[in-house]
Amino acid sequence: MALTDRMIRIPDADRIRTQDPNNHLHCRKSQLLAHVAGRTPHSDLLMYRALGSTSAVYRHCYLRGRDRWAFEAPYVTEDDLRLLGFDLLSAGTVDVDRFAAGLPELLAAGRPVLFYAPRHHFPHWVEFMERVGTVAEERRLLHSFLVGGASGSEVLLLDNTTDDHEYVPLTVGWDVLREGYAREPERWFVDCSTVVPRSGPDLDGFESAYRAFLARFRDGFRIYDLIGENLAAERAAADAVYRAPGVNSIALLAGSRTLFGRFLALTRHGGQVRAAYADVAQLATALSDRINAFHAGAPALTADRIRGDLAELRRREQRAAALLTEEAARLPRLLPDGGDGAHR
Which of 146, 162, 197 is the last residue of a domain? Predict the structure, then answer.
């Protein structure tokens, strides 16, 4: 099967919408989540481990100095996608001719294609990085691109370089891909992958996995104090607001708590637990905005005020976690069974 003048487009391209309003996930995870959410109403089951470990966030952002988008979040994993009913298949790194040859058959079967390539080779990414002030040493990083269609002259990408980080369709000519590949072939078409729907969700599998997570879930949430203690020093030292460890930590925490709240809506947890985590997510998101503004120099925000809010957030987290684990211990089943169905 060959590409022609007619665009081959996956049928659900218009349903690929961001599921990460806090913009905290690694690009590939964000794309996978957006895709499967357009295919199944059960995608929020993937968030059962979203609470993760705040110590892991601290090690990533503070000790290693990495940003939120490089964090290996313990949700939207290959194993959990399989529980949801999707197989993630990878062909590894391929050359441009093999990529072009394999694309039409996959797209015609309704399967998206994902690959990594240097983002500075794409005009829309160059414009985005200029607009948001990406530091020079990060402009050559690889990005995961999601292909939703192709013809003989252009490729349809679904990317989220808009201000609200929503996925929108845009086309790039094959010349962009071929010229970029010619410049850096070893960095193009890395980890070419596709997603294959296989079955409905394995609710028993998710039940077991969620209970295993809760059995190991122990967290003192000390990170909130550490973010507050480092506010002033980070504000003075950061070369770009988005690189500050506190900015990245609170973004990861706000994003994960927001997604965990969506998971709770699919469970048999009661209103008290759901409300407690809704409060946590709301305050964490508000604090993420405030800490960004503080590092950007907003005069009305003081470090002491933010520290007080962070202390309150830590108290809310501790209370919510206690409610969650106590209720889980009492419930004979946490997720619906096959007869109940799962609803948003």
Answer: 197
Count CA atoms within 13 Å of residue 274 on its CB side: 10
Cα–Cα distance between 139 and 162 in angstroms, integer? 17
- The band of 340, judged by pLDDT with boundaries at 50, 70 and 90, is very low
Residue 3's pLDDT is what?
A: 85
- Dihedral sign (CA 239, 116, 51, 63): negative
User: Which two three-digit tokens encode residue 231?
Assistant: 């506010």
Instruction: Report the alpha-carbon distance of residue 129 to residue 26 in Å, rounded.
Output: 17
Name the percent of the chain in helix, strand, coil, to the closest 5. 55, 15, 35
What amino acid is encoded at 174 in this protein? W
Tell me the residue range of the domain where 135 lies.
8-39+86-197
Establish if 59 belongs to a structural domain: no
Are 148 and 272 within one domain?
no
Residue 331 neighbours by CB under 8 Å, 6+ apart = 268, 269
Pull the structure tokens for residue 10.
């996956």
- Summarised one tens digit per residue, pLDDT across range 199-229 is 899 999 999 999 999 999 999 999 999 999 9
Residue closest to 104 by CA, chosen among 175, 62, 152: 152
168 and 239 share one domain: no
- Residue 113's Cβ-count burial label (10 Å; 0-12, 13-18, 19+) is buried
What is the rounded (10 degree) CA torsion for 85, 52, 190, 192? 10
Each residue's pLDDT tens digit, 270-309: 999 999 999 999 999 999 999 999 998 888 899 999 999 9
Same domain, 114 and 228: no
The continuous run of DSSP H or E covering 105 comes out as: helix 96-108
pLDDT tens track for 243-257: 999 999 999 999 999
Number of domains in the chain: 2
What's the Cα-to-Cα distance from 92 to each of 102, 110, 186, 187, rounded to whole Å? 13, 20, 12, 12
DSSP state of 44: G
Rounded distance between C-alpha atoms, residue 227 and residue 236, angstroms? 14
Which of 157, 173, 197 is the last residue in one of the domains?
A: 197
Residue 158 and residue 125 share a domain: yes
- Note whether 209 and 326 are same-domain residues: yes
